[in-house]
Design a protein that fits this description.
With 376 residues, the protein is of the alpha+beta class. 54% of the residues lie in helices and 19% in strands. Strand 4 and strand 5 form a beta hairpin.
């Protein structure tokens, strides 16, 4: 028996050596590849497909001669890119993104000027498509999701790899597991974190239309001296609940908070319509500020809050909110003051307050009954 093994071993080795080139060129036509390389200021994506798969995406062999040339692939590139953007989703730091601008494609080095139909599903038919997305900093996590697996084939598989910091992490995407969340473990320096939260606070004010409507309702009927008290009390109040909620000391249901914010707009607008004096409105605004603070905290709740420097990041976010508020008030108050000049002052206050009350009522109805008709 041992003599038989000794006789067969060199034969098997020789057969393996002879067949090795064939195995090297072999490729499963139901397999594609994805590579994500994460850097400090950019994320690079490479998606690789054989020509057999690409022919399902775009008609590349335009002259129908059984071969696909570089020029034909270049002609079909917009259609291929559109397919990839429709069917591959990317999230960076839990925020929807894309894979950036294309930087071209890489033609198989052994394919010559054209790829024959017989080689379309082999390694000689593999074509790389590269994209680069600039980022302000290395993302802490990236989610890659493939939505085209089922349209191509139920058996289609994507062999993926994530490269970061000299390490490589491999993962397989299938129709049963079409997405993967890769956590880099990277934490930016604290000063960068503070800048991110500051910008987020400013952006939230200008994108938070309900908060802007509330501020405008305060401005419409308030004189400058009363407005200073109102804004100060509002700031102190929402800063308190923002910190308490973000630190998970006090929590309120999101639906209740969002409906409450809408109700504050209606209440202040109705007060304007009734002509209620604003000298002591700062007391009312303090209570409303507590509700708005929970709303600001809900925004932070959707983020990956840092484990170090958390309080400082929250303070930075709050400063950003205040800067946004002050910028809005600085722009709105002179305009409102101009509208209130002369004998039409009361009409201007009534008109603006009616519009704000209608917006607030619509938001309240939508949020209280969870209709989803006004997502902004």
């Amino acid at each position: 028996m041992s003599r038989l093994r000794a006789f067969l071993r060199p034969l098997a080795l020789g057969a393996a050596l002879l067949l090795a080139p064939s195995f090297a060129r072999a490729h499963n036509p139901d397999t594609s590849y994805a590579r994500v390389t994460l850097g400090e200021h950019e994320v690079r994506f490479r998606f690789t497909y054989d020509l057999f798969t690409l022919q399902k995406v775009a008609a590349l062999d335009t002259d129908r001669d059984g071969r696909t040339t570089r020029a034909e692939l270049q002609h079909g590139l917009p259609e291929i890119h559109a397919f990839l953007r429709r069917h591959i989703a990317v999230d960076l730091d839990d925020t929807a993104a894309d894979f950036g601008a294309p930087t071209g494609f890489v033609w198989p080095p052994d394919a010559g000027d054209a790829i024959a139909a017989a080689d379309s599903h082999t390694a000689n038919g593999l074509i790389h498509f590269d994209f680069v997305r600039p980022v302000a900093d290395t993302p802490e996590n990236i989610v890659l999701a493939f939505r085209f697996i089922a349209p191509l084939s139920d058996r289609h598989t994507v062999l993926g790899s994530f490269l970061f910091g000299g390490a490589i992490h491999e993962v397989t995407f299938t129709r049963f597991e079409p997405d993967y969340d890769y956590v880099t473990g990277y934490e930016p320096p604290l000063w960068k974190r503070l800048g991110q939260f500051l910008r987020l606070g400013v952006a939230h004010i200008f994108l938070g239309y309900d908060h802007l409507c509330f501020l405008l309702a305060l401005v419409v009927a308030s004189r400058f001296r009363a407005l200073v008290k109102i804004v100060t009390s509002f700031t102190l109040a929402h800063s308190l609940t923002l910190m308490l909620a973000a630190l998970d000391i006090v929590r309120l249901p999101v639906r209740l908070v969002e409906a409450g914010i809408a109700a504050t707009i209606v209440y202040v607008a109705v007060q304007n319509l009734r002509g209620v004096p604003t000298e002591r409105r700062w007391l009312l605004t303090s209570g409303f500020g507590l509700i708005h603070g929970f709303g600001f905290a809900n925004v932070l709740g959707e983020m990956n809050l840092p484990t170090t420097g958390l309080v400082r990041c929250l303070l930075s976010f709050n400063v950003g909110v205040e800067l946004g508020q002050l910028a809005f008030l600085a722009a709105a108050f002179p305009l409102v003051a101009w509208l209130r000049q002369g004998r039409h002052e009361r009409r201007a206050v009534v008109a603006l307050s009616v519009v704000l009350a209608l917006f607030g009522a619509a938001w309240f109805t939508d949020r209280a009954w969870n209709l989803g008709a006004m997502p902004f």
